[in-house]
C-alpha cells in the first residue's frame, strides 16, 4: 500500500487548522450543550467558600458599625461636605492618599512589582513637590505616572500563598480577614505618621487623635457613599458585604 | 480529494470569521443599550422626570435588548425550586425594580458617566466577555459583562464590577436566606427595600 506524504506547507497548514478548529468546536459544543435550566443552576465559581466561623459575633459587629456609620459618622460627613468646597475636599483626600505612599511602595516591593514601585515613587515625588504636599496630583498628566491600583501588605501576603483565615468584621473598620488584619498591622508599621514607628518626635496623643480623626472624616464621604449603595440593594447586607469584600480582595491578589 | 479538503478548510475559516463578527455585533449592541439607558436619565427631556419615570424608561431600553430574567435566574440558582410559581414571578419582578432603582439612584446627582467598551473575549462558542471602563466623577472603574447564547439569543448573565461579580454576590445572599428563610420572606424583604425612599435606611440583619 502506498502512503501519500503531505509535503506541501499549505497541506500542513490546512491540517493544523482542522485540528485547532475541531478542538474549538468540541469545546463550544460542550458549552452550548448545557440547557438554559442547567445553566441557571450552575455553580458560581468565584467566592463560593468563605470561612466564617465567627458569624454570630461578626453580624453583631456589622450591626454596631452600621449604627455608628449612619447615626454618628453620617451627620459629621454631611456637615463636613456642606461646609467644605469640593476642591478642598478633593485636596484633603489627595493629601492623605499621598501620605500613604510608603504602604503602597512596600506592598509593591513585597510582591516584586518593580514597575508599580517605580510609578508610586514617581507619583509621590511629583505630587509632593509640584503638587504642594500632595494636595494636587500633577502626576496624573505625566506619561507613565498615571494612577495605578494601590497595593498593600495584605495583598503581598496573599500573593505569597498565605490563606485568608477566618472572615472578620472589625469595629469601625469593617470587613477584613485574619490575613488582612496582619497586613493592616504591617501597613501601620511602615506608615511614618502612625505609631509605633512614627517619624514625628514628641507625638502628643491629642495631635495623633486629631490627625487620625481628620483622615477618617476626609475618607468617609466616599466610603459611606459606596457603603450605602452596597447596602441599599442588598437582601442580606452582611452576606453581601462579606461576599463583595472577599471577591474584591481575591481579585486584587490575583491581578 | 485535496481540492475538497481545501474547500472544507475555507468553510471552517468562514465559520470562525462569523464568530468574530458575532462578537463585534454583541459589542455594538451592548454599547448602544448602555448609551440609550444613559440617555434615558441624562437627556435634556429627562431632567424633569421623576425617579420612577426614569426607571421605567431605562427598563424599556434594557428589555428591548436583553432578557433581565437571565441574570436574575442565574443569581437565584437552585433556590428557584424552593419557591412556588407565583413567588417566582413576583421575585423576578421585584428584583428588576430593585436593580433599576439602584441604577437610577446610584447616578443621581452625578455627571453622565463615560462608558467605553474594550476587548471581547470568547470563553467558549456560547460564552463571551466584554470589558469596559467607566469614568464617573473623575474615577475610573473596570466592569466586565459576561454574555451567553441562550435560546432567546445572546444575553447578559453576569456583570463583574471591580472584581465583584453581581451574580456571585446575590447567589451568596440568597443561599444564606434560603438556609433559614422562605420565598414569602424574600418577597417581604424585597418589598421592604423597594419601599424605602432612600437606599440608606437602617440595616436589618
What do these coordinates show?
The complex is a heterodimer of chains A (255) and B (205). Chain A starts with 8 loop residues before the first helix and ends with a helix. The longest helix of chain A is centred in the first third of the chain and has 29 residues, at 55-83. In chain A, α5 (101-110) runs antiparallel to α6, α5 (101-110) packs parallel to α7 and α7 (153-159) crosses α8 (178-190). Chain A has one domain (55-254). By secondary structure, chain A is mainly alpha-helical. Chain A has helices at residues 9-33, 36-41, 55-83, 86-99, 101-110, 114-129, 153-159, 178-190, 205-232, 237-254, and strands at 167-170, 174-177. In chain A, strands 1-2 form a two-stranded antiparallel ribbon. Residues 21-30 of chain A have low confidence and may be disordered. Chain B is an alpha+beta fold. In chain B, a hairpin with a 2-residue loop joins β3 (139-150) and β4 (153-161). Chain B is 57% helix and 21% strand. Chain B has six helices and five strands. The longest helix of chain B has 41 residues, at 2-42. At the A-B interface, α1, α2, α3, α9 and α10 of A face α1, α3, α4, β3 and β5 of B.
